[in-house]
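Field reference: sequence -> structure
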Amino acid sequence: MARLDCDLLPLLMACAGGDMGTLRPVLADHAALTVIVSAKGYPGTYTTGSAIGSLQAADAVEGVTVLHAGTKRDAAGTLVSNGGRVLAVTATAPDLRQAQANAYRAVDALEWQDGYCRRDIGWRALSRSGEAEVMPENHNAL
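Structure field:
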């Protein structure tokens, strides 16, 4: 969706009607990459209700959008975790290497002690392009 460069509604309507005809999605030339930030323990046992901070700093990274999947506001109005897969940090950039760097820069801006993410997102695609030769060491902490 981060690369969609046309109106989504006609595509959805055509799909719902069962007739795409010659209608095709138009995709932008830029790359996109999403890093999921999960609650520690996910997909097993995890806790909810821990505060998540610095969302504005993460959103301020060039080309980044932070999407919420498992968050809520507590009684005091603080943003807290409320699920296992909590945030989707999506970055777009001219190439995959830059999109990856931007996504992880945004992840690193988050302040959430109970969050973690994989640090190897995109390595297979980068290895196919010759930009990465081996899978990086996977440090999961934020």
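Note: Helices lie at 8-17, 55-59, 96-109, 123-128.
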